[in-house]
Amino acid sequence: MHPPEIDEVDPKHSTNEVDPEVAPDISEEERLARQLSSHKDRIKKTKYATRKNLVLVNTGIGKGKTTAAFGMLVRAWGQGMDVCMLQFIKAKTANWGEEKAARKIDIEMIQLGDGFTWLSEDIEKDKELARTGWKLCKEKILSGKYDLIVLDELTYILKYGWLDWNEVKETLDNRPNRTHVAITGRYAPPELIEYADLVTEMTEIKHPYHANIKAQKGIEF
Amino acid sequence: MHPPEIDEVDPKHSTNEVDPEVAPDISEEERLARQLSSHKDRIKKTKYATRKNLVLVNTGIGKGKTTAAFGMLVRAWGQGMDVCMLQFIKAKTANWGEEKAARKIDIEMIQLGDGFTWLSEDIEKDKELARTGWKLCKEKILSGKYDLIVLDELTYILKYGWLDWNEVKETLDNRPNRTHVAITGRYAPPELIEYADLVTEMTEIKHPYHANIKAQKGIEF
């Protein structure tokens, strides 16, 4: 296994890979054999697959939406790409681990919010912040300067109706070929799910909060 | 909103936050008011909450398991913590974005695998690699040198029976107080889910592979 081959195919994804949960009866050898053949099929198929700029969405009520987007950002940065993250909800004054890390390695990360929007007691101010924030996102997306832009927690702005989906769609439609856009947040609207190329839902199975354990530095923030 | 308050509570998590999907009838103002009150309750509660070292699991067949763990690793590194990632399946010779990024910022990342285990044509060799890999994980976990250790794709080794859960459990039981451990991979065994403090399932809603689009640099690897 070497990088060019990895380039051809996403090895973790398979439509006909044999899931041991689904097919517990076959032997391990048989499963491995089938997986190998399925993998080879996919390599063959993807030789003719198209490259395109993607819209990716991390949604759901579980953890890891922002963290996975941040991980992707750092990874793309590792590949020498031009990246940027715009965060809608987090306050400018907070000092999150992401921010600290981004500062250390000089990744562009911009906080557009003024605290947690849903905690505000002045909705009009939040709407205005959201509109101003979106303007900057639009500029960045259309600038042609980025390979990957993360719009962190944009979904809330859409959900609350402070920004119209058609405006987002138009910007995404007109973005340069090189620019992938990743959007995170709960309640991704159906139009966005429909539009996106890749959608992952994070579901919470278990959370330490239930066991009365505090949010911890380096883990939650 | 300032860091000490964030420290007190995970603002994204709530057990009684009002989900607009579930309660569409209440007004936006009412929802915000209830969320604010729920948030204040939680801050109060968590004042008495306990800090402890956590075991976190990212599982499910969707994307973002490794990426979210990697994001958490970089974030913890941003907080000045000592971190390390050990990867079971990825080959030493591959040149992934995570690796490149980790090298650039001097985060310890160790590949224990020799290619994709489930693609191997020599199962005995894979078993041996898994056993040797686990030994190193155990040393790192018990060393007391780390705040966060990610065991990437350890679940497969457990699933295939190449490593006994009780051995993992014993190591986790005996780990130093400072050490959080995050484990990623499909098919997390029930014992691990039961043992873990936080479990997130990543579900694939949509994948560009289905639209015959190639895996892309900076996005998938």
TrEMBL record, chains A, B:
It comes from the Bacteria. Pfam families: CobA_CobO_BtuR (PF02572). InterPro entries: CblAdoTrfase_CobA, P-loop_NTPase. Residues 18-28 have a biased composition (Acidic residues). The keyword Transferase applies. It is an enzyme of class 2 (transferase). Signal peptide: none annotated. Keywords: Transferase. Its EC number is 2.5.1.17. GO terms for molecular function: ATP binding; corrinoid adenosyltransferase activity. Residues 1-29 are annotated as: Disordered. GO terms for biological process: cobalamin biosynthetic process. NCBIfam families: cobA, PRK05986.1. This is Cob(I)yrinic acid a,c-diamide adenosyltransferase. It comes from Candidatus Chlorohelix allophototropha.
